Amino acid sequence: xxxxxxxxxxxxxxxxxxxxxxxxxxxxxxxxxxxxxxxxxxxxxxxxxxxxxxxxxxxxxxxxxxxxxxxxxxxxxxxxxxxxxxxxxxxxxxxxxxxxxxxxxxxxxxxxxxxxxxxxxxxxxxxxxxxxxxxxxxxxxxxxxxxxxxxxxxxxxxxxxxxxxxxxxxxxxxxxxxxxxxxxxxxxxxxxxxxxxxxxxxxxxxxxxxxxxxxxxxxxxxxxxxxxxxxxxxxxxxxxxxxxxxxxxxxxxxxxxxxxxxxxxxxxxxxxxxxxxxxxxxxxxxxxxxxxxxxxxxxxxxxxxxxxxxxxxxxxxxxxxxxxxxxxxxxxxxxxxxxxxxxxxxxxxxxxxxxxxxxxxxxxxxxxxxxxxxxxxxxxxxxxxxxxxxxxxxxxxxxxxxxxxxxxxxxx
Amino acid sequence: xxxxxxxxxxxxxxxxxxxxxxxxxxxxxxxxxxxxxxxxxxxxxxxxxxxxxxxxxxxxxxxxxxxxxxxxxxxxxxxxxxxxxxxxxxxxxxxxxxxxxxxxxxxxxxxxxxxxxxxxxxxxxxxxxxxxxxxxxxxxxxxxxxxxxxxxxxxxxxxxxxxxxxxxxxxxxxxxxxxxxxxxxxxxxxxxxxxxxxxxxxxxxxxxxxxxxxxxxxxxxxxxxxxxxxxxxxxxxxxxxxxxxxxxxxxxxxxxxxx
Lengths: 412, 259
Prior knowledge:
The complex is a heterodimer. By secondary structure, chain A is mainly beta.
């Protein structure tokens, strides 16, 4: 509690002190209430948020800091610094150093080349994407030539993605064979040292014919591979115990994306080739119960304005190369997204329907919402998250977690 | 018999048409082209305040900083949204081509932190909830419509050509517009818009204009939508021409960096 008060006072003092130096403060306050439609009407979330942004922009230098305070009933305040970085501006170059969100790619709601900022998946894919993406400590150098941008990123410290706790309603379903396994986290951390740095490069072009991005990265897989070790009693040759050792592995990533327009259609594509990704197997002979395989992830999408509504779809495929039947994950995973969005009453009312559909498990996440701009900067949002499926698919596993929610947000 | 009919038709044409042409010193197309080609400088910067007023008199204010530059075959514009708070740091860039192909448009939304290409084909969409469509804000090419001079008329003491323009495109959002073009200044001082069913829709009135650095510039205009009982006030401040806006202003870097 003392810590909380201290941080809030600090924010206040900084706010008082920095205005004299031309730092502006803005942000939003938000109340977010949601309830499950099953689980006896249990609340899915009761959250109050204060998101502050301190922003100074100069000709040669800039500063940005984004502390966020989350309040939940019966819990200590959850305080985080989503971003805090400094910019140095030169004629044809910018240098950004500090904690920052780095977002690449053209896809909506899908992470293909957008792999640098780790994700907070404690509430699955339901929060705003700005809140799902975590800031990462990085040095980013951007060079500009005409309409082209060349970015080099060095991330000295690895930060893993955040998964829900085992007791959370958003905890992903564990494979049956891991039931009763013991977890050993001794290999779970990536040591903070120079040789564990991550590197990435992006080339981006904004042109009349098309926008193009090319990326290459040498990173850590943000989610650990669960290596499974069996304890075998040699006499009856029977498995007597399972130990799971989560461990992060290196990934090489090469990919790109494009976006163009044709006859009123916006056409997007994005793809990435991942080298050396680890997959769990059913084959006991594999050490740790995993194999390394290269992996492809790509999509094609189109967006169109139809009767004043934005209508869009994306088709996504994930493919494990050199596949063997003992790999637990299916060789292909096929997903689609659908978007319909329309504004009414001079953009004060917005109706939106965003849907993920999994072809392989015939499951889906359907997200209808309505937003009303009650006044400038003040919006009221109501919506639902409907999961369909039989409990085994990526979305269907949360079939019992259908929820309705409301958010009231004031931007200042 | 056929020859006699042709002779009388030609005679009637001379009787009625020649005086009609002689009544005006310019053709309708020449007037519209003069307005279209009105000098606007190599580049322009301005602060724009847009006030949306509904039938109850409630007001919503949007503030925008905009830069424009003529690159010869491309005219580039970039807008930075300053208020209200929920659109702060949003930017919008438009590249308009002299050869008439669809504009290229991009938007940067700070919550998404990336520049998105959007369809430049949505010219009939209203700009930021205002009474102006994207097409109303741009320069419509004179050859996209058939123009006729209806009459000469004084508006606010300025002699103006009253021009009716009917689009050649069948499915265009307006069936016709009537524009009062100030003689010599080539500013559209007033324009009436009729919807695709031929019904009166809205009127644009220029309330204030000035000659800035040798360029006639609209500083205050109001669009009043009769069907929706809504109006939008547009006020330009700090208008400057030929300040040497850098080519680099119209890039992904500036969209994401903002002002």
